[in-house]
Amino acid sequence: RVLPQMAEVADSFDGPMLDTSKWWTSSNGTGSGLAAINERIETSLAADATDGPSGFMGPGFGSQCHAAGDYDARVHYELLDWPFSNGVHVLLGDAGATGSIGRRSESGFEDYLAFFNPVPATTPTAHVAGELRLVRTGGTLTASFREGAGWVPLLMGPTTTDPVSLNVHLYSRDEIFGNRFVRVAYDDFRITASSFACPTWWRDTMPDWAVG
Question: Distance from CA of residue 172 to its chain's centroid?
Answer without folding.
Answer: 14
